[in-house]
Amino acid sequence: MKISVVTVCFNASDLIEQTIESVTGQTYPDMEYIVIDGASTDGTTDIIHRHADRISYWISEPDKGIYDAMNKGIEAATGEYVIFMNAGDRFANPHVLESAASHLGHHTVVSGLWNRCYSNGSVKKGIPKKISAFKTEMPICHQATFTNLRYHKQNLFDTSFRLSADYDFFYKAWRGGQTFLYIDLTIVDFLEAEGASTDNISTSVMEREKAWRGERNLLLRRMVLSYHICRIKTVKFIKKVTAGFAQTK
Predict the structure, then answer these.
(1) N or C, which end of the chain has less CB nearby within 10 Å?
(2) Where are the alpha helices (DSSP H) in 61-195?
(3) Range from 40-44, 64-68, 107-111, 119-123 carrying the lowest mean pLDDT
(4) Whether the Cβ atoms of residue 91 and residue 24 lie closer than 8 Å to each other
(5) How far apart are CA 131 and CA 109, in angstroms?
(6) pLDDT for residue 197
(7) Residue 92, SS3?
(8) Rounded Cα distance, 193 and 132, in Å
(9) pLDDT by residue (tens digit) across 2-47?
(10) Which runs of E-coded beta strand occur in 92-223?
């Protein structure tokens, strides 16, 4: 069971090495590692080149965004399953692929647990939600998910999405009757982008509607999306006010 691990990156010199070492340190023998760099200018490619003897394939060239880079990784991959481990993310331990391999082979998507890691050192455990949650949200973590490579090559990410092509891909897989399996295995220490703007979060949420083209019950789903956006903005506002109050003390 050959597993392809793909890392996409751009100007990630402060993060890429820990990701490379995490991937190349896996004990599972039947693995290939692919790195797709978006023509970095900050020394990222120097780090990649330093580890080139442990990387199966890598390129550094301009792309049209993260999902275009991911598609390049999918097209270059030759395994039976593919998983993305992007700059800053790390496998939870050296034996993740070895432990996961026994669960692969019979399902299109196999997804596990994840650790959501913050810059202040705190960690929150991520657990997949019920598969039916795809109706309104992403119930799995992309970096904690293995996808059948043949299926992915036939269904690349839609690059017209700016932030939510992964949701679009998995949503369509679910709606199309592809099989999903949840496993009780922590896959990744996922770097949470705490600095993501509210506008980006809103865009990510609203892009889900684009993935629902032709679906029924859009009004109800829009109401759910509006609730999510309001909740996110309220939480961020409270954090901002709390932080400001703490600074005045």
Answers:
(1) C
(2) 66-76, 96-100, 149-154, 165-175
(3) 119-123
(4) no
(5) 11
(6) 44
(7) coil
(8) 26
(9) 999 999 999 999 999 999 999 999 999 999 999 999 999 999 999 9
(10) 109-117, 123-126, 145-148, 180-191
Cα dihedral sign, 46-47-53-55: negative
Which residues sit opposite 33 in a β-bridge?
A: 5
Q: Which of 32-41, 96-105, 235-244 has the lowest mean pLDDT?
A: 235-244
DSSP designation for 102: G
Judging by beta carbons within 10 Å of its beta carbon (0-12, 13-18, 19+), is residue 231 exposed, middle or buried? exposed
Q: Which amino acid is at 86?
A: N
What angle do helix axes 218-248 and 198-211 make, rounded to 10 degrees? 170
- Of 75, 161, 152, 159, the residue nearest 109 (C-alpha): 152
Six token digits for residue 242: 């709390």
Longest dimension (CA), the chain: 58
User: Nearest to residue 142, comparing CAs of 187, 177, 181, 172?
Assistant: 187
Model confidence band, residue 120 (pLDDT cutoffs 50, 70, 90):
confident
Distances (CA, A) of 136 to 31, 131, 159, 196, 204: 34, 11, 21, 21, 12
Q: How many whole angstroms from its chain centre is CA 14?
A: 19
Give me 16's structure tokens: 């890429």
Judged against a pLDDT cut of 70, whether residue 249 lies above it is answered with: no
Structure tokens that stand for 153 in this block = 């090559």
Q: Is the dihedral of CA 11, 86, 130, 153 positive or negative?
A: positive
Average pLDDT, rounded, for the chain: 88
